[in-house]
Amino acid sequence: MSEISIDMPWVIFHLLDEQFAVSANHVREMVAMPKVVTVPKTPNYVKGVINLRGQVIPVIDLRLKMGMTSMTEEADALVQLLDQREQDHKNWIADLESSVRERREFKLATDPHKCAFGKWYDNFDTDNRILAGCLAKFDAPHKKIHAIAIKVKKMEEEKDFDSAYEMINQTKVGELAEMIRLFAEARSLLRESNREIALVIEWSERTMAVGVDSVETVEKLSESHIDEIPAMVSTLDNECVSGIGKRDKDEELVQLLDVGKLIDQEKELTIETHKDEE
To answer: Domains along the chain?
Structure first.
């Protein structure tokens, strides 16, 4: 607790929806995560090493270190979901066309809120304004695609097959093509925004980088607003969290990391990296 016994500036950052902080006294710099070279036979939370102006530095995925899902895994899962939902709508149009050709019932969702994408879309939320703006563009073409099913089946009942096929073809080159373009744009935005910040920290002549989602600010936390982590929630898995702080402006809780413990836990990796430099 000696590291947090007096007022001092803290670098406050985000991991998922939680706030953490490290003493600014030990933060050398904050940079967009450089290219990471993986190191074999290391724990899963060790991303690898980076070359920062000629110095080889080990990098820890702090999300994984703290028992969370990594940003890369999270983005990959969302990209895979978008791939699946894009294919769903290609299959939807194909099945509608087949149902007309085969004169059979169309059993897929005609309500845009009840397909797999619609259910996800109605509940998904993001703080990324650019991604949110892209996703908002899905609403109109998605609703229009589902709306044609009833119209097409009515045309089929009236034996106006040419008009039914024409509406399906127009939807393929119109709304479906627009959704395919938007899916590609959303995937691209996800990959571009999946860029962690590397906090380069130093302790006892050792240097390490930790990957975080974003850095919010550097500010002081009053000593009166800092408490030890309760014993009932203190475990070996979170022993790097040495205290809980309360921000002055909004009293939000911040988990305070002990840089010494964090780096000492990775002592072997750090020493091996320095040996490689020599």
So the answer is: 2-68+195-277 (2.40.50.180), 73-193 (1.20.120.30)
Q: What is the pLDDT of residues 17-36, one digit of tens each?
A: 899 999 999 999 999 999 99
Residue 71 is encoded by which pair of tokens? 């940003």
Residue with tokens 């709306």, as numbered in its chain: 147
Alpha-carbon span 47 to 37, nearest angstrom: 8
Distance CA 262, CA 266 (A): 7
Residue 182 tokens read as 């938007």
Instruction: Please count the CA atoms within 13 angstroms of the CA of 97 that sit on its side-chain side.
Output: 16
Task: Report the C-alpha gap between 218 and 20 in whole angstroms.
Answer: 12
d(CA 123, CA 102): 36
Q: Which SS3 state, helix, strand or coil, does residue 100 take?
A: helix
**pTM exceeds 0.85:** no
Radius of gyration of the chain (CA): 26
Length of the chain: 278
Res 213 pLDDT > 50? yes
- Return the closest-CA partner of residue 65 out of 34, 22, 30: 22
For residue 162, pLDDT beyond 50: yes
> Strand 226-227's sheet: what is its strand order?
214-220, 9-15, 18-23, 253-257, 241-246, 226-227
With both helix axes pointing from N to C terminus, report the angle between 139-157 and 161-171 in degrees, rounded to the nearest 10. Answer: 170
What is the token pair recorded at 94? 């194909």
Tokens of 273: 């990296």
Sequential DSSP letters for 7-36: --EEEEEEETTEEEEEEGGGEEEEEE----
| Spatial contact of 226 and 245, defined as CB atoms under 8 Å apart | yes
CA distances from 219 to 4, 11, 21, 44, 248 (A): 13, 7, 10, 32, 10
